[in-house]
Amino acid sequence: MEKTIIRLKKKIKMKNPILVEGLPGIGLSGKIAADYLIKDKRVKKIGNIYSPYFPPQVLMRKNGIARMLGMRLYHMSLPKNDLLILVGDVQASDAKAHFEITDKILDFFQKNGGKFVITLGGYGTGQRPTGEPKVFGAATHQEVIDKYSAKGIEFGRTKGSIVGAAGLLLGLGKLRKMQGLCLMAETHGGYIDPKAALVLLKKLAQVLEMEVETDKLEHKVAEGEKFIKKMEEKAAKEAGEETGVSSTGRQDLGYIR
Q1: Distance between CA atoms of residues 222 and 14, nearest Å
Q2: Continuous H helices in the chain
Q3: Do 180 and 119 touch, CB atoms closer than 8 A?
Q4: Structure confidence by residue, pLDDT tens digits, 11-37
Q5: Which is it for strands 135-139 and 154-155: parallel, antiparallel or unpaired?
Q6: Over the stretch 81-117, which tens digit does the pLDDT of each residue have?
Q7: Model pTM?
Q8: Between 3.40.50.720, 3.40.50.1000, 3.40.350.10, 3.40.50.10900, what CATH number should domain 5-213 receive?
Q9: What residues does 182 pair with on adjacent strands?
Q10: What span, in angstroms and rounded, lies between the C-alpha atoms of 200 and 25?
Q11: What per-residue string of b and e applies to 91-120 under the rule 16 or more CB within 10 Å gives b?
Q12: Which of its termini does the chain have fewer beta carbons within 10 Å around, N or C?
């Protein structure tokens, strides 16, 4: 394999499609949200993307069959639009590879009449959000900001850059006269965050004007919160034992002289 290829299972006619990207990134929030959407709606896979720029590995599945690392394309129909959902195991290995793979995806999307891109990701703050994580936004055009600010997406509150496919699909898409929106859930950034994925999924559903059943993801969030709380309590207790201060803030006497 010398170049990136999109291998379709079958040809699909699309109605004014919207591209939704959910590849691995900060907190895996975008990937979890997109994967959950696919499972919840039982979206059909229409193709695979393979590239020599992906790691030289195969994945071993539970049934014993190995498969290539790559990206996958799924298609579903909505009343107003079709969705082309991009998910996968990995992203490209270097800058040049990112451009080639993104161009290949946009070629396919544009050929099928696509004009609007939504990318999903996490916005790492280094801290656990207090309360419900916020959803920040970045867009290619002011009219996109004007339209989606009303849905509770906070624009102009972030800084820095959007790395990888989540950013490049917007940037290269704009050069092709496409509009784009990046949704970023507030997250710590140092661990997998299903809670960030949940708020991201709910906001995506609002943007797309669709219903998504989130009970199973909410259950994972609850389990994850319990685990994190236990780890924090354990860390606080261990820190207290080392300093002689209990987790309640009282001075503990480790011994009596």
Answers
A1: 37
A2: 29-41, 95-111, 142-148, 165-175, 194-208, 215-243
A3: yes
A4: 889 999 999 999 999 999 999 999 999
A5: parallel
A6: 999 999 999 999 899 999 999 999 999 999 999 999 9
A7: 0.87
A8: 3.40.50.10900
A9: 119, 138
A10: 13
A11: bbeeeebbebbbebbbebbbebebbbbbbb
A12: C
Sort residue 185 into left (φ over 0), alpha (ψ -120 to 50) or beta: beta
Query: What span, in angstroms and rounded, lies between the C-alpha atoms of 111 and 131?
Result: 43
Q: Two tokens at 251?
A: 């001075």
Confidence bin at 255 (pLDDT 50/70/90): very low
Backbone angles phi, psi at 235, to 5 degrees: -65, -40
Residue 249 neighbours by CB under 8 Å, 6+ apart: none
Q: What share of the chain is helix, strand, coil (3-state, %, to 5)?
A: 40, 25, 35
Chain mean position to CA 244: 42
Amino acid symbol at 133:
P
- Residue range(s) in the chain whose domain bears CATH number 3.40.50.10900: 5-213
Q: Which amino acid belongs to residue 216?
A: K
- Residues with Cβ within 8 Å of residue 174, at least 6 apart in sequence: 140, 141, 180
CA–CA gap between residue 138 and residue 144 (Å, rounded): 9
Residue type, 42: R
Six-digit token string for 76: 């579903």
